[in-house]
Amino acid sequence: MVFAAACGLIVANIYYAQPLTGPIAASLGLAPRWAGIIVTVTQMGYCLGLLLIVPLGDLLENRGLVVWMTRAVAVALLVVAFATRPALFLVGMWLVGLLSVAVQVLVTFVTHLTPLAIRGRVVGSVMSGLMLGIMLARPLASLVAQLASWRAIFVLSATVMLGLSFLLRWSLPRHQSASTQGYGPLLVSMARLFATTRPLQRRAFYHACLFATFSLFWTVTPLLLSSPRFGVSQGGIALFALVGVAGAIAAPIAGRVADRGWIWSATLAAMALTALAFTLTWFVAPRFFIAALGLEGILIDFGVTTNLVLGQRVIFSLSAAYRARLNALYMAIFFLGGATGSALGGWAYASGGWERACMVGMALPALAFLACLTEAGGRRQTP
Fold first, then answer.
1. Residue limits of the Major facilitator superfamily (MFS) profile domain (predicted)?
2. Separation of alpha carbons 275 and 299, rounded Å
3. Superfamily, domain 2-380
């Protein structure tokens, strides 16, 4: 429970800004067409942290690494909260993304404490906490912005991070990796691992496509709901974003499915569900549009969460000696997909409205589906 709660609280930091891009851009004087860069910069920082910081889990004592990263992200959140210029705000968000990779050190950490037979179930449980953090971050940020201002959520989260750092230091066991490599060789080895680990290549590509879809949907939806067509307030957007919480139930289910060896078929199902979800708003009367949009969000979150846990089950079944590096590569690649999805979503919505955003959102998981069909021996995959 501590691992799951910590993952949820930390990962929420990189999603608080997502439903607030409009008010933040207006407050800082950032042009509306550049509002999507707020999410993109955060995700790019997260990607860099995955490549440069998460591998330290194979080198340094894990508890101490997580504790100090949690304290550092509290400082970065305060920079964001009190920034008055776009440049300083974006630097702060980049640092928030960079340091929030503590969550991936925690996910790898828990696998070292878990036997293989139940690893999918345990990872699924921890990931359910992480996904709840992602899903609840958006409505919480919108609600706090409605009651106070967009800056308040970052001050609140900085306080929570400081308290969490002391809880983690008190409650987690120490874990020191057996690796004797230096930091430089550790980073160099990641290129070799990526080049030679076929399951990593495939699972990273699959989830890059699906996470791009996820980011696209949750970047565009607040813009759509707040547009003159609907005129939904920040409080209303907060309520709408709560539908995504339902997707978190997919994590423990996917973990159990993975432990049974049904990874390939479940992966295809998750991709198909994510792609088809975008068609729901095409066939409803205008008065049912928001309800259909909410169901669409649930299905997308369910499919993306399922695919994430299935992918991690595959990655965490490989050698424990370089598990942190494999997870870092996996997460970095698909977060690049997420950053791309946010940028594509902003462009598609600005240039072609919701319909064009839906087309792009469908194309990405469809591409992953076609790639997964080529997976040799997929039906027999039982890591």
1. 1-380
2. 9
3. MFS general substrate transporter like domains (1.20.1250.20)
Which candidate, 350, 347, 258, places its Cα nearest to that of 308? 258
Q: Tokens 């791309």 — which residue?
A: 340
Residues 334, 205: Cα–Cα separation, whole Å: 7
Q: What is the C-alpha to C-alpha distance for residues 188 and 251, in angstroms, rounded to an integer?
A: 32
The C-alpha atoms of residue 289 and residue 271 are separated, in whole angstroms, by 23
CA atoms of 201 and 41, how far apart (whole Å): 24
Query: What's the CA gap between 52 and 137, in Å, rounded?
Result: 25
pLDDT in tens, the chain (383 residues): 888 999 999 999 998 998 888 888 888 988 766 777 888 888 889 888 988 888 888 788 889 999 999 999 999 999 999 998 999 999 999 999 999 999 988 988 887 777 777 777 777 788 778 878 887 888 899 889 888 899 999 999 999 999 999 999 999 888 776 666 778 888 888 889 999 999 999 999 999 999 999 989 988 998 899 888 888 887 787 778 777 777 777 877 888 888 888 999 999 999 999 999 999 998 888 889 999 999 999 999 899 989 988 998 898 788 777 777 888 889 888 878 887 898 899 889 989 999 999 999 999 999 999 999 998 655 554 44
Q: State phi, psi for 61 to the nearest 5 degrees.
A: -65, 125
Read off the DSSP letter of residue 56.
Answer: G
CA dist 263 and 268 (Å) reads 9
**Are the C-beta atoms of 21 and 30 separated by less than 8 Å?**
no
Question: What amino acid occupies position 80?
Answer: V
Are 123 and 111 a contacting pair, CB within 8 Å?
yes
The residue type found at 72 is A
Dihedrals phi, psi of 176, to nearest 5 degrees: -110, 125
- For residue 326, what are the contacts with CB-CB under 8 A and spacing of at least 6? 193, 197, 200, 315, 318
Beta bridge partners of 106: none
